[in-house]
Amino acid sequence: MAKVTSRQGSDAFADFLRLIELEAGRFPVDLVPVAGENGGAPQGLLIVDQALAETRKKELARSVTGGDGRTKPAPPLTLVNRPGGPESFHGLVQTELSRVKSSRLPCALLLIRFAGSSDGSLLTTAAAALKNEVRDGIHLAHYDQATFALLLPGLNRNRALHKARAIHHCLGAVAACQVKIGLAVCLARAVPGVEEFMAMAVRELHKSGHDTGGIFYSFQEETDDSCQVSAEERAQLFRFTGKGKK
Amino acid sequence: MSETNSSPQIICISSGKGGVGKTSFTINLAAALAGKARKVLLIDGDLGLANVDIMLGLNVTHTLREIVEEGRDPLEILVEVMPGFFVLPASSGVPEMASLSYEEQAFLTESLEQIIGNFDFVLVDTAAGVGDSVLWFNNWAGRNFTILSPDPTAMTDAYALIKIMKTRYQKTEFHLIINNVKSRKEAQEVFANMSAVLENFLGVKPCFQGAIPQDSAVSMAVRRQKPFLVAQPQARASLAVMEICNKLLA
Question: Measured between CB atoms, which of A229, A239, A241 is closest to B160?
Fold first, then answer.
C-alpha cells in the first residue's frame, strides 16, 4: 500500500488520489471513488479491471462503498459564488493554481455557455444535470448570466477534454439552446496568474461554435514534450563520437 | 563594502550533466577575474548539495539557507576567498533548499539583487540537472555559459539544457566551454558538431567561449582544495582559463 509522506493532511491525500487517477487513465480500468461521509473529502479509490462483468464490478464497489459505487448520491456541487460573489471563485482558482505549482498536478477550467439564453433557471437545471458528471473537489460557479465556470483539479489535457465532451453531451440533453464550452488547462510547467488563466478560458469560449463541436481548446497544436531531445537530435549530436547509428 | 557597479555581469555556469567540471571552472574563472582586479561574487547555486566551499577549503558557518529561512542579510554570509573574490556558500544535505517554492525563489532573488551591485561579475555555479533552481538561475543571469565534455552524455545533457532555456525562457545566447579535451582539434570538433545541431534544430548560434585541456593539475588542485590557477598558474588548464577570462574582459 502506498503511503503519502511528502505532505500531510487531506489535501495531500486528494492530490495523491488524483495522481493515481491520472496514471490510471492510461490503463483499461474503472475507478470508483470512495467519498467521505456526506460527500466529504475522498477516503479512497477503488480500481477495477474494465474487463470485469458489470455485476462483479458492482459487487466490488458495494463491498467498499457500502453502495454500488455507481448509484451513490452525487457529491454536492460547490456553488461558490452564492453568496460570496465572484471573488470566491477567483480565490478558489488562485488556491488551485498554487496547488498545481506545489503538487505538479494539472487543473482544468471550463466555461460553459448556453448560447442565446439569459434564462437563469436554465443554469439551475443544468447544475442539477451536471451532478452526475462531477465529483468531490470540483468547483462550479456562475460566471455570468448564461455561463458556468467549472474548475476541475487534477485533470490533464486528455482527461479534461474527455470530461468536457461528457459535460457537453449531458447538457445538450437538457438545454434546448446550443451549449458552448471553452477549455483551458494549467500545467505545472507554466502556471499562469488567475486573471490570465480565466482569460484563456474566455478566449477559448469565444472561439467555440458548431464547427468545433461546441468545445474549443487551443492546446491541440502543442506537444507535451516540446523540450524532449528527439532521436534525430541525438543522432546528430552523437555523429561526432560515432554513436549516431545506435 | 563600497558599491562599485550598479549592473554587474551575471554569468550562470551550467552543464546539465554532473561531473563535467562546472565548479572547478567557476572557481578558477572567479580567481582569474579577481586577479585582474575585478570584484567577483561566486554564488554556489547548488543549493542542496553545495561544493564551492569544499573546493576552496572554506569552513563556512552561514549559508544561503539562512537568507531563505531566516531572512539573514547576504552580506553577513559573504566569505572573501582572496582579494576581490567573494563566495556566497550554500548548504549541503538540505533537500528543501534544492526545491525552493516560487515565493522562496523570488525572495532569494530579491535578496541577491540587493548586494550584486557591489561586484563587477556575479558567477553562479548551478547544480547538475534541469531542476527548478538551475532553470531559474539560468533565466536570472544575463549570460549563460554551458560546459560540456566530449562524451555523448555530457553533450546530450548540455543540449537538453539549452533547448529548455530556448524553448521555455526564450534565451538565445549561449556560450560553450568544452572541458577535458585531448586537443584543440577535439574541442573544435565538439563545438562544430554541437553548434550545427543547435542551429539546425533550435536556430541557436552558440559562441565558443573556450576549451580546457585534460590536465592532471585539475584533479590535484581539487584534492588540495585550491583553484588550479593559484596552485599551478602555468598549468595548461590554468592558461586556458586565463584565455577565457581575457576573452570575457575584452
Answer: A229
